[in-house]
Each structure stands twice: as structure tokens, then as C-alpha cells.
Write a structure and sequence with these properties.
The strands form four sheets. The chain has a five-stranded mixed beta sheet with strand order 2-8-7-4-5, with no helix packed on it. Strands 12-11-14-15 form a four-stranded antiparallel beta sheet, with no helix packed on it. It has a three-stranded antiparallel beta sheet with strand order 1-3-6, with no helix packed on it. Among the domains are: 100-205, Sandwich (Immunoglobulin-like), CATH 2.60.40.10; 212-307, Immunoglobulin-like (Sandwich), CATH 2.60.40. Mean pLDDT is 80; it is low at 27-69 and 84-94. Strand 7 (179-188) and strand 8 form a beta hairpin. The protein contains two helices and 15 strands. The protein is mainly beta. It has helices at residues 6-22, 36-55, and strands spanning 100-105, 112-115, 119-128, 139-145, 153-155, 165-173, 179-188, 194-205, 212-224, 227-239, 243-251, 260-265, 269-276, 288-296, 300-307.
Length: 314
């Protein structure tokens, strides 16, 4: 009787059972219902989009001519506005019909000291830098500030083409009160339009009264055919400005003075006047004196010089 080997068969069954437990279980099919078809379609589209994104190759930013531009998918991007540059000047015209430029002060520069109440002429040098010719009908007009006795308007009187210069004089009078003064003038065209301001600036000094400030004396001698070494007195008269001085010689024997004489001064300074005395030799050694009295402007006695000299002959 044949023996059946049961042990290997049992082992084989156990191994098959273990393998069956480790195999993956199949996914149960979705339940059938009214939305089942839509669910399946959505899953199919999702898988297709995912595969398309994974397989997409990046494109260059510079598209070739003729290639259609990419379209936006419902994305509203606001336009970019460049910031305003507040430092950028507005454009202005580089050409102007009536335009002038101050060049220099021909007379009376700024800050010139002028005696109170004195007359002076202020002259400006002005250049035509516009595009229009200034005609004699153009005028110089007072604008504001201290007018200093100047005219309200004064004809230019000449023709000034573009690029040319002109000297414009205006006669003025310094105020009588010491101070600093500034007056402003402008040009005015034939249509009455003013342009380009320029000014006169002075410092007024208190007026100084003309006067003789000092008189000094020196003693010398003189001679001629009938006199030898006679006394000569020279008076040195100094003034503080221009004017005429009147005076009288006076001496010990004629203290009231002689005839009135005069000397003119063009400016402040010193001038010399003299008197010759034919004092006889018999008076040698006898004290005497000679001086002058200023009649105008001071009406003042400026003393004298003393001496004992006399002629040696006769």
C-alpha cells in the first residue's frame, strides 16, 4: 500500500495563503449614481492637465515676428504711471522781443558817497539782448524807490539794435538827509510795456560848510632897486572845500586891517598869499607883528606872526 506525503502539501497551501494576503487589493468601482459620469470626466481632465503641465517646455521671452502674443486669462493689470519729476523745469521761450541786460555803471557805482543836496548824473550801460530794435520812442521811466529828483520818464532818443549797448544818463539830486538811497528805473517800449529793471544807489553825506580851517605864517625877505632885505610875511590859508575866501592884512600899526582881498579855491587845500613891508632900517630891533583876518566865510581872526626885522636900507 502506497503512503501519501501530506506534509509538503500542507506547507504549499500555507505559503499560497500568505502570498494572497500581501497582494494589492483592487480599487472598488465607484458607486453608480447620477453624478458618476461627471466625476469620471473631471478626473480625466485633471489627469490630462497635469500631464500637459509636466511636459510643457519653457519658451523664450522674445517671440519671433508673426507669433501670436500670449493672452491673459482674466487678469486685470492696472497701467503703470511714471512718477512726476518735480525738478524738471517747464520749457520757456529762449527768444524775447524786448529784453535788456545791465552791463556796468558808467558813473556813480553802487555806494558812492554824495554830498547832501548835490546834483549828479547816473549813467548805466545797457545791452539789447532781445530780438527787437529799440527806437527813439522807447523811454527810461522811474519805477519805485527814491526818485532823487529824477524824471518820471525820459526819451531814449537813440536806436539800439539787438546785440548793441547804449549809455543811459539820468540827472539826479541827492536828498538832504544823510542816509543810503536807492531808486529803480525801467525801460518802456513804444506800446507802453516796461521791461528790465536797473537802479541807482548812493550814500548821502552831511553837507560840510565851506570854511577856512587854518592860517599859518612864515617870515622871509624881499629886495628891489631901492630896498634891501625888507620883511615879507607869507600866510598859508587852508580850506575844507571849494570856494572863495576874502581876507584883510592887519599889523600892529594898522590893527583894523587894510583893503579886502580874495583868493579862490577849486577844491579843499592850501593857498599862499603874501605881504611885503618896506619897514625902514630905523625900526630894526623893534617888535611888531603881521597877520590876516578872514572876512568870509569864517569872519575870523587867525592870529599873526611877530618879528623885529626891518629893511637894511634905506
Amino acid at each position: 500500500m502506497r503512503r501519501t506525503n501530506r506534509i509538503p502539501l500542507a506547507v504549499t497551501i500555507l505559503l499560497l495563503a500568505a502570498l494572497a494576503c500581501n497582494l494589492p487589493q483592487p480599487t472598488p468601482p465607484p458607486s453608480e449614481g447620477p453624478n458618476a459620469a461627471y466625476t469620471a470626466a473631471a478626473q480625466t481632465v485633471a489627469v490630462a492637465l497635469t500631464q500637459s503641465a509636466q511636459n510643457q517646455v519653457p519658451t523664450a521671452t522674445n517671440t519671433q515676428a508673426g507669433a501670436p502674443p500670449p493672452t491673459s486669462t482674466n487678469t486685470n493689470v492696472p497701467p503703470t504711471i511714471a512718477p512726476l519729476n518735480t525738478n524738471t523745469p517747464f520749457p520757456t521761450s529762449t527768444q524775447q522781443c524786448d529784453k535788456a541786460q545791465f552791463v556796468t555803471d558808467v558813473t556813480i557805482p553802487d555806494g558812492t558817497v554824495v554830498p547832501a543836496g548835490s546834483s549828479f548824473t547816473k549813467t548805466w550801460r545797457i545791452k539789447n539782448i532781445g530780438t527787437c530794435t529799440w527806437t527813439p520812442a522807447y523811454t527810461v521811466v522811474y519805477d519805485h524807490g527814491n526818485q532823487m529828483g529824477g524824471p518820471n520818464a525820459q526819451a531814449l532818443g537813440v536806436t539800439v539794435s539787438p546785440g548793441q549797448t547804449v549809455d543811459i544818463p539820468v540827472n539826479l539830486v541827492a536828498p538832504t538827509t544823510p542816509n543810503e538811497y536807492t531808486g529803480y528805473w525801467k525801460l518802456r517800449n513804444a506800446s507802453g510795456v516796461t521791461f528790465t529793471q536797473f537802479y541807482a544807489n548812493i550814500k548821502v553825506q552831511a553837507a560840510t560848510l565851506f570854511a577856512v580851517t587854518s592860517v599859518t605864517y612864515t617870515l622871509s625877505t624881499w629886495s628891489d632897486a631901492g630896498h634891501t632885505n625888507c620883511p615879507r610875511v607869507v600866510a598859508h590859508i587852508t580850506t575844507n572845500g571849494p570856494g572863495t575866501v576874502t581876507f584883510k592884512w592887519t599889523r600892529m600899526d594898522t590893527p583894523g586891517g587894510g583893503a579886502t582881498q580874495s583868493v579862490n579855491f577849486a577844491a579843499a587845500g592850501t593857498k599862499n598869499v603874501r605881504t611885503d613891508w618896506a619897514r625902514g632900517s630905523t625900526w630894526a630891533g623893534t617888535p611888531t607883528w603881521v597877520g590876516i583876518i578872514i572876512v568870509t566865510p569864517n569872519n575870523q581872526n587867525f592870529g599873526h606872526i611877530s618879528f623885529t626885522n626891518a629893511c637894511t636900507s634905506p
